[in-house]
């Protein structure tokens, strides 16, 4: 009789010790839906901060790709290879472009601001790689990618990288990049947010460009460079920048 009275308690204890039943299919689907909505909500907030220009780019480039995660090192297949980037047709006397080791992820250049930020932060480690990357993209593509806004901090990084790595043969490509950046929205705000070190880098970059101008115009206007004076021709990017404030001085 006592055994019959204890057995219900034994069953209750066993039920407490057993693991909880696995979630049903409906519950798993509901959890997955909640996670998807949360990812897409965060992606929409990022898109608002980045100023994505149109709905198609917003939906295909950010929202629908919100579930993607960066590859681990073990997931990257294949060997790294050396590729010669040739961003512009350099003069015959200019030194040839340097061979730069490009990560496999950069076989395809970015087409959106989100893709650019991903490659710029994760794949490019040295200033030389970033410099060749900017030249490979070119001013036209950079102006299209950042037509809404260059983004906080990026303008200063661009100026620093260009100043530290510019070569005389890349003068035309660098000028095109500067001209395109000067035409982006909220350019004046980004200029105002430059740090003192970034402003000094911009001054260094403009001095080097003026030196290239002097070398180019020496045969046509030798008097303009005799005493270290500035060239008589004002570049387009500088005329645009003057209207927004003399941020290189």
UniProtKB/TrEMBL annotation:
Domain RNA-polymerase II-associated protein 3-like C-terminal: 110-199
Region listing for Disordered, in residue ranges: 1-23, 223-249
Protein origin, superkingdom: Eukaryota
Any single GO CC term annotated in Swiss-Prot or TrEMBL for this entry: motile cilium
InterPro entries in the record: CC103, Dynein_attach_N, RPAP3-like_C
Keyword S-adenosyl-L-methionine: no
Domain Dynein attachment factor N-terminal: 25-86
UniProt keyword terms in alphabetical order: Cell projection, Cilium, Cilium biogenesis/degradation, Cytoplasm, Flagellum
Pfam families, per the entry: Dynein_attach_N, RPAP3_C
Basic residues: compositionally biased ranges: 237-249
Protein function: Dynein-attachment factor required for cilia motility.
Similarity remark: Belongs to the DNAAF19/PR46b family.
Protein known as: CC103 protein
């Amino acid at each position: 009789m006592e055994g019959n009275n204890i057995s219900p308690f034994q069953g209750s204890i066993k039920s407490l010790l057993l693991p909880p039943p696995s979630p049903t299919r409906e519950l798993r689907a509901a959890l997955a839906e909640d996670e998807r909505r949360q990812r897409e909500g965060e992606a929409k907030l990022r898109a608002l901060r980045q100023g994505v220009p149109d709905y198609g780019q917003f939906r295909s480039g950010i929202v629908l790709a919100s579930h993607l995660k960066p590859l681990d090192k073990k997931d990257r297949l294949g060997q790294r290879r050396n590729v010669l980037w040739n961003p512009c047709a350099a003069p015959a006397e200019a030194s040839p472009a340097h061979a730069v080791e490009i990560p496999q992820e950069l076989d395809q250049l970015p087409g959106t601001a989100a893709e650019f930020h991903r490659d710029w932060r994760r794949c490019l480690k040295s200033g030389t790689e970033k410099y060749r990357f900017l030249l490979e993209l070119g001013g036209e593509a950079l102006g299209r990618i950042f037509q809404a806004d260059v983004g906080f901090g990026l303008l200063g990084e661009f100026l620093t990288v260009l100043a530290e790595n510019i070569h005389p043969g890349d003068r035309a490509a660098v000028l095109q990049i500067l001209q395109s950046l000067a035409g982006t929205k909220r350019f004046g705000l980004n200029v105002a947010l430059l740090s003192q070190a970034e402003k000094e880098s911009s001054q260094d970059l403009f001095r080097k460009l003026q030196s290239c101008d002097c070398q180019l115009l020496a045969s046509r206007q030798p008097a303009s460079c005799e005493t270290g004076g500035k060239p008589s021709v004002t570049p387009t990017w500088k005329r645009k920048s003057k209207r927004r404030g003399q941020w290189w001085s």
